[in-house]
Amino acid sequence: MEKTTLYNYILGIADNNLILGQRLGELCGHGPNLETDIALTNIALDLFGQTRSYYQYAAKLSAIYKTEDDVAYLRKEREYKNVLLVEQPNTHFGFVIARQYLFDVFNYLFVEKLQHSKDETLSAIAKKAIKEVSYHKRFSGDWVKRLGVGTEESNQKMQEAIDGLWQYTNELFEMTEVDDLSVRGGIGVNLSELKETYFKEVAEVLKEATLTIPENPYFQKGGKQGIHTEHMGYILADLQYIQRTYPNMTW
Amino acid sequence: MEKTTLYNYILGIADNNLILGQRLGELCGHGPNLETDIALTNIALDLFGQTRSYYQYAAKLSAIYKTEDDVAYLRKEREYKNVLLVEQPNTHFGFVIARQYLFDVFNYLFVEKLQHSKDETLSAIAKKAIKEVSYHKRFSGDWVKRLGVGTEESNQKMQEAIDGLWQYTNELFEMTEVDDLSVRGGIGVNLSELKETYFKEVAEVLKEATLTIPENPYFQKGGKQGIHTEHMGYILADLQYIQRTYPNMTW
Amino acid sequence: MSEKEIKNLEQIFEARIERDEKIEPKDWMPEKYRQTHIRQISQHAHSEIVGMLPEGNWITRAPSLRRKAALLAKVQDEAGHGLYLYSACETLGVSREELYEQLHSGKAKYSSIFNYPTITWADIGAIGWLVDGAAIINQVPLCNTSFGPYARAMVRVCKEESFHQRQGFEIMLTLCRGTEEQKAMAQDALNRWWWPSLMMLGPTDAASVHTEQSLKWKLKRKTNDELRQQFIDQTVPQADILGITVPDPDLKWNEETGHYDFGEIDWDEFWQVVKGHGPCNKERMKARVDAWENGAWVRDAAMAYAEKQQSKKVAKAS
Amino acid sequence: MSEKEIKNLEQIFEARIERDEKIEPKDWMPEKYRQTHIRQISQHAHSEIVGMLPEGNWITRAPSLRRKAALLAKVQDEAGHGLYLYSACETLGVSREELYEQLHSGKAKYSSIFNYPTITWADIGAIGWLVDGAAIINQVPLCNTSFGPYARAMVRVCKEESFHQRQGFEIMLTLCRGTEEQKAMAQDALNRWWWPSLMMLGPTDAASVHTEQSLKWKLKRKTNDELRQQFIDQTVPQADILGITVPDPDLKWNEETGHYDFGEIDWDEFWQVVKGHGPCNKERMKARVDAWENGAWVRDAAMAYAEKQQSKKVAKAS
To answer: Given CB atoms, is A186 within the 8 Å cutoff of chain C?
Structure first.
């Protein structure tokens, strides 16, 4: 498999972690109580840890970017490959949990498969990540139930979040050209094969949480092609602020 | 008078317009009705127009920055000299109006005096601006009364805004070293002389608006020394985004 | 009124339109004429104010002070257009509150193009160039439409829009004459906005439900497909000047017809967006509803204040 | 209990403290001891969670992934400190809700240092280096304080804080070894954080109201002025290593005393900030209150859910 394909494949994984971590980072210190604040920060830390491993690998493959930070900070918006789901704002805690859960279920299935990648580095990263991701899924799934079942207000808010974010789920399974090539090379994960399990598992948890799956048959996509929502520009403006303002320095 | 002093004196004026215009720009399309949306955009346009004239002049005096945009976009946070008042957020429409009014009364008094500056360019800018600024003050003053007198809710919200922003008024009259030098050179405005008129006029309007002046004897400062509130970094991250990400290009 | 009397009034009415006379708010008009105009003018007004959002997204981030001021002024013009279109609509006996209510509940539509995100600065150029370009083609004929207030509003709107369109083209031109990266940004914007712009001219004639009646009332003077062809014929040479490529492999000049042939439009996407499932439908509606709801106390205060001032005057006078 | 009995208990109590025995929550203690500890421990806990805000301000903008992760972890540690300090406080018979209520109403204080804004990245370094440095000097003696839960919490807190302090110093060192611009940024941060850090050690002994009693209970083992001197003596050589200058023209080594002499502290500023009029008092309190109020429905839901789960279990069991 070509270097560029592998490089792009890695970005397609790691950008999700970066941007979701960034969103969780905004919340730090503003959670509904200390315990959730600490737990969500833990998740953010795991995500950034994984991001760093992926980007360190990507930097080795890149002709342009030399370090993990170059990869993280110096691309243009159209070059970030994360799915739209992870860039959605922290509208309220229900959105934070729904976004997390809808991503975690996918991420768990994905990382589970990635452990068997022929690429040793990716496989090693996945093997390290699987425990973390499993914890994320349990945490966010528990909160989906707590908020879904808890009170009438929390049920409504959680349903609102699911309704708002559902349109971004399908993109998780969209196979790009890079995905196809990577699967054929024995390195990548076939996302289409995860889809059924994903929607089945999510449906069960939502049912247990007394929440309804929106009937909308329409889904959004674009993130994997670098066509993001209008939120993304503002995320990047903050993320890249120092690196752009003081270029070529060590921090 | 030295070139650098004049340059810094101009920034001390124009940065207020830039940052306040930027705050108003965030609101465009989100106002309580079309009429106020249009009126606030008008004010923003006036402010940016004035900013451009000032910065064009500043760029002529600067050894580093060649164009108005260099001056506007390429400085670091600590180099922006605006008062803290203008960078305060659009918390709600009461804050927008209070911020505007508390600035406009000052700005009118200031621009009125600046017309008599020995510096012909500054005097010309001021002569052009005075009509605009007079309109701004009328607009925001009318709204202070409308919201103060209107309903119980609007009175409370307006009072909340006055209470929140009052601590930033005094800084408007703080004389920096650059101000002192400029006054001595016959170019600058003696801010201390405006203070009494300012607080008298504001007190009258607030009284008419059935609003109370906070008794807090403490005021904040720092903006004129480039020590801003934590809001400023985010304002600049957006403002400078394109210029920083794509340096040295023409737009 | 008897049916005969109504028939008679209708004939006089249609004859007036035929003679290119303007219908004014106080004139008698068929109920369907009134309803159709409320629908179309308000839809047009809604498009103006929803249209402020994607462009407003770049005000704080505009790359130069000149561009920032021009963009602010443009978005402000759109608010102005909204304002006179709502006013024109109000002359037909409907309040602005009702119209907003229709927008916020999803009952009234607005132009689907504004449900696409603006993700780079070039999108601001592309919107001016393509979206305002298509809007003008749609709207110029309306300067001669039969309903007076609408026709007069459109004269002013069209004048400003053609200014916006030139401004958008100039943004694109600056990018295309800039660095490689800037040119790529312009190309990317054209790629994303081209097809939605074609869709702006409305469904194909076959699928369009309002065309015939609208032609009669001069609410339409050409069919959607004719307008679309006009837009393409006018825009492709402009892309050539810019040196960027229209993203349609089937696009080519047809010597015989004297028009450009073009590829098939993805009408599924069109209907998805119209039905509320475009990339930004939810965000746009949320932004409008939030502005309206958060502004309620302000509007209430203004009204209460006006009433208090009024009673003061009355008290003084008596 | 008779006065005599109380007197007797008090003597036994004071003797235990004298012998360096730990007082545990279930032990008898004078009411004043309880109240003083609630006040001090909660103030300390509040400082931890308010202290998350100025540093949290740079999480999204940290200049490298490594720094971002370290900063996140640090802010998380502060949440952790808050958590065990609140727990220690709760053993004295006060609920977390009451403590929050005291914070939000302004009745309880927190360290004034967190009312200063973090305006450049160097501030994150300076906070670690200076603020955590001063905190450690304040807190190390508390590892041997008389109240068991507090002393044990402090052991853990101090360990983590000295890690944070080293990390902060390392950020400063990286800046000082970087470009001119970075070094200037570090100097600027030192200029702004130096005096507030000195104030962190509390008012001068003459102005301090709690010192004597606190010394007896081992809530304090040195006076504020002694601690301040220790901080200065320890920090100035570190500034020398960094190659930046402490912003105090009166600062100089005194061979005779073996300490640094230093200039006068602006106590007016200190009291202004303590009384709620510092640069960020309003913002900090608003952030805490917003988080608490916006989280109410979440906490309610969690409680309701737990109750529902409980009743299910009970229903199953019966």
So the answer is: no
